[in-house]
Amino acid sequence: RRRTGGAKAPDLADVRGQPLARRALEIAASGGHDILMAGPPGTGKSMLARRLPGLLPPMRRREALETALVASARNGRFEVDSWGVRPFRSPHHTATVPALVGGGNIPRPGEVSLAHRGVLFMDELPEFPRSALDALRQPLEDRRVTIVRARGCLTFPADFQLVAAMNPCPCGYSGDPAYSCRCTPDAVRRYQGRVSGPLMDRFDIRIHVVRPGATVLSGSDDEETSETVGRRVRRARARQRRRRFLNARLPADSLLDICRTDPEALELLRTSAERFHLSARACHRVLRVARTIADLADKVEIAKEDMSEALAMRPETGTCSRVARPGD
Fold this sequence. Notes:
There is one protein chain. The chain is an alpha/beta fold. About 40% of the residues lie in helices and about 10% in strands. It contains 15 helices and nine strands. It has helices spanning about 20-30, 45-50, 60-75, 95-100, 110-115, 130-135, 135-140, 185-190, 195-200, 215, 225-245, 255-260, 265-275, 280-295, 305-310; strands spanning about 5, 5-10, 35-40, 90, 120, 145-150, 150-155, 160-165, 205-210. The strands form three sheets. It has a five-stranded parallel β-sheet. Helix 1 runs parallel beside helix 11, helix 1 (about 20-30) crosses helix 14 and helix 13 packs parallel to helix 15. The protein is globular and about 55 Å long.
């Protein structure tokens, strides 16, 4: 197990069951994709998110130096034990815009910059102030934050991987077969509407996490460890380094050249886009995720099964991975 903050990193083997969520986490780690997990309380969303840094490749010296400089800019000091450890930041949902993206009379980096080269975990995503969520959109696109003041401006790096978690409704049990939801359809819509469409669209992967059964929780210790999954992640990222871009950061002008698909996979994407009214941006995100799935399988071309799995992680396609809707 890799070390995180002077302690052993949480191991993915601790998560029992949840095959869809574990697979989604592996894909997210391999391609650098932002991921949203929705589901009732107690299904392991936070537990899964905290295991993502243990799946990522070791930091290179340049990356470690970048994170050390950002941490030093925050309070003027740097903890030696955290050298070379990928950051994991988990701000509370009461965090203000300056705390999240940076600011102050003397500009200092916020959580998005402190998570540079690591993971930013936002639990209870709809509970964050709308202004704070909207402020995330630019760092997610530009991978940096520019703070302008009368004396000048400062730019901080913010190349982080966003992991978010949310309940499907205010009480948390919409669509849960074990508990009855007490929320009205209007309350569910208002709750989910706290996260704007533009921000929601920036998540490459969106899955619904279900409650594991009692037999799974009491089963044998046969889940894959972080080291086992991490080896597959490192092989997939090695392929991407040869292309010079993480799949989640592939520029649109080279997307079709890199994300080569076989005819059946391309036809599946076309028919899905027409049936579910996917935007061009959504299709590009599906292609990036499908490229990561193909990289995990050491494939040169994206096959039909790779495209099918990538589409299954988009709620627009009407699969089980969607965020619960009112009346579910």
